[in-house]
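Hi all, posting the design record for the shared folder.

TITLE: backbone redesign
STEP: 1 of 1
STRUCTURE INPUT:
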């Protein structure tokens, strides 16, 4: 079977662009941009408020990321964090597929195992859901 070299070159280019973007090297960094530390503090405060309102459960703190876990260098204004530090997730409460109110016009990313391709990177999900808690299986 003959492989189209143009397709291979295009795929390699896409991968290189994604790699550069993830490392913060695709465009110059704007020193006026809000540093990641400020955004992380806002996320932390919002999670604390959601816990207080009993909308999410309190979780155990995660260990800090070690230098060994960092796959590459990032700009100084960025920060490495663990997924669980910035999101709230739970297992076993899949919304009923038959309930269209939950699955149509969703805005909340719905992460499934099939969304995690290389066990390291999650940059998008196939589906999004709405905030209709009445259709979650109990």
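Okay, here is what came back for every position:
SEQUENCE:
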């Amino acid at each position: 079977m003959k492989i189209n070299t143009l397709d291979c070159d295009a795929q390699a280019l896409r991968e290189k662009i994604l790699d550069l973007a993830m490392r913060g090297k695709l465009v110059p960094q704007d020193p006026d941009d809000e540093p990641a530390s400020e955004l992380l503090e806002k996320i932390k405060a919002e999670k604390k408020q959601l816990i207080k309102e009993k909308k999410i459960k309190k979780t155990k703190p995660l260990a800090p990321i070690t230098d060994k876990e960092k796959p590459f260098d990032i700009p100084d204004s960025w920060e490495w964090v663990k997924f669980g530090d910035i999101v709230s997730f739970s297992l076993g409460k899949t919304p009923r597929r038959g309930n269209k109110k939950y699955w149509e016009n969703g805005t909340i990313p719905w992460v499934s195992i099939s969304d995690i391709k290389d066990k390291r990177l999650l940059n998008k999900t196939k589906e999004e859901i709405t905030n209709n808690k009445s259709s979650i299986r109990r």
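COMMENT: The chain has a mean pLDDT of 81.
Let me know if anyone wants the other runs.
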